[in-house]
């Protein structure tokens, strides 16, 4: 479906990703009822993607975070494009019955080691709490420090 090349069947990989993207103009449109349906949709679509393992979804009223493990053959940009396009179409046509949700261009993605999976899953799931306590940080600096704690 979204394969770059045909990969041999005996390939081992651990490609764990933390992904995030924002609503257009950071509009706070992901209120609880929309967010619940959006998260359900994203989880369902990720679980349907061959050889992709869903770990977590979270976010706030203006952005989404995901944690997943992907195969080396998955084209990340196409996959995220399908998730973003499909989710906005679903929310606008099936839930809101009007144009409510649009995504900003682009996305953020950081890989992380399997040993950090539990930490990243908790981070993704607890986005609202981080923001409510004023503990939100630049996700990329947090994850970069996690991967390289001495800042080298």
Structure explained in plain terms:
The protein is an alpha+beta fold. It has a single domain (15-129, 141-147), classed as 2-Layer Sandwich (Alpha-Beta Plaits), CATH 3.30.70. The chain contains five helices and four strands. The chain has helices at residues 32-48, 76-95, 117-125, 127-132, 139-147; strands at 15-22, 53-60, 63-70, 108-112. A four-stranded antiparallel sheet has the order 2-3-1-4, with helices on both faces.
Question: Could you say how many structural domains there are in total?
Answer: 1
In the CATH hierarchy, the third-tier topology is known as Alpha-Beta Plaits
What would CATH call the class?
A: Alpha Beta
Mean pLDDT: 87
| Rounded radius of gyration (Å) | 16 Å
Helix content class: 40-55%
Global morphology: globular
CATH superfamily descriptor: Transposase IS200-like
The percentage of residues in β strands lies in 15-25%
Strand order of the largest sheet: 2-3-1-4
């Amino acid at each position: 479906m979204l394969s770059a090349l045909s990969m041999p069947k005996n390939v081992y990989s651990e490609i764990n990703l933390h992904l995030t993207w924002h609503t257009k103009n950071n509009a706070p449109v992901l209120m609880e009822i929309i967010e619940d349906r959006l998260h359900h949709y994203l989880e369902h679509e990720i679980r349907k993607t061959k050889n992709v393992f869903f770990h977590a979804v979270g976010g706030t009223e203006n952005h989404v975070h995901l944690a997943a493990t992907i195969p080396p053959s998955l084209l990340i940009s196409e996959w995220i494009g399908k998730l973003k396009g499909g989710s906005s179409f679903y929310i606008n046509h099936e839930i809101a019955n009007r144009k409510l949700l649009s995504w900003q261009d682009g996305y953020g993605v950081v890989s992380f080691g399997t040993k950090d999976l539990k930490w990243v899953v908790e981070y993704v799931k607890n986005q609202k709490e981080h923001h409510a306590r004023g503990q939100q940080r630049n996700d990329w600096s947090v994850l970069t420090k996690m991967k390289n704690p001495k800042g080298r």
